[in-house]
Amino acid sequence: GGSGLLERLAPRLKPQALAPGDTVCRRGDVGRHMYLVRDGCLAVIGPDGLPIATLHAGTYFGEISVLHIPGNKSGNRRTATIQSVGYSDLLVLSKEDLAEVLQEFPEARRDLEEKGREMLRKMGMLEEGEAFPVEVDREGLLKKAERLDKALDSLRTSLARLIGERQSALHKMKLRLSRLERWLDTCEEAAAHRQDRGQVKALVHGQAQEPEPEQVQASVHGQTQAPAKKRAWNQLKALVLGPREIQTQAQVEDPGQP
Fold first, then answer.
1. Model-wide pTM > 0.85
2. 193: Cα within 13 Å, side-chain hemisphere
3. Strand order in the sheet with 14-18
4. DSSP states of 5-16 as a string?
5. How many whole angstroms separate alpha carbon 228 and alpha carbon 126?
6. Contact present, 95 and 33 (Cβ < 8 Å)
7. For residue 11, which of 110, 115, 142, 100 has the smallest C-alpha distance?
8. What value does the mean pLDDT take over residues 112-125?
9. Is residue 42 within 8 Å of 82, Cβ to Cβ?
10. Residues 128 and 70: beta-carbon distance below 8 Å
11. How confident is the model at residue 65 (pLDDT cuts 50, 70, 90)?
């Protein structure tokens, strides 16, 4: 009932004292509070700057811009300027506190909205029709918005985790490729070393055959030319057999040489 509503509102009300000529709010300002007149007198100033109404103790104002009435052409902006005629005392209620309390008292919300719509009709600032339904499930919309926020947070967390896992996988793959390259280099070096040892052993035992031109052209990297390979072969024979053995072997192979 009304007493329960007042009990819920009372702890949230904040006093505000006004001197003569003080302006509470101006036409076109964004509304963030509604006001209850505790004592004194206030004037409602029209667009032409002249008073069009007065507010006395026990009345309230400012609710239109904080209730989000469907069809309100002014939206959440003040529809009039309010000034204190003399010394006045107000009770101020924030938009957030009003919305929280009215969730518990839907009938009071409907009464305030209906009075607000009546005032907007008189001022010609209400658009009525199917595009502006009277009843809006604000609580349901708020809950949906909260669920959407939670879902977005969950998606952001999942995306960040996936990005981290992908970067970790790429790093591990690079390490594996690097180890594989080193292993291949080691295998090539070992194979080349075994081949050189076999050739040295064959030279020592006099069983080595000079490589064919096709074999000379082949190298570990596939880029060495035949003359370079032949020179390397001759240097290896000179190192193992000595110059005299090479000369003797050449005379045996080619008796016509001096």
1. no
2. 6
3. 14-18, 88-94, 33-39, 60-61
4. HHHHHGGG-EEE
5. 98
6. yes
7. 100
8. 87
9. yes
10. no
11. confident
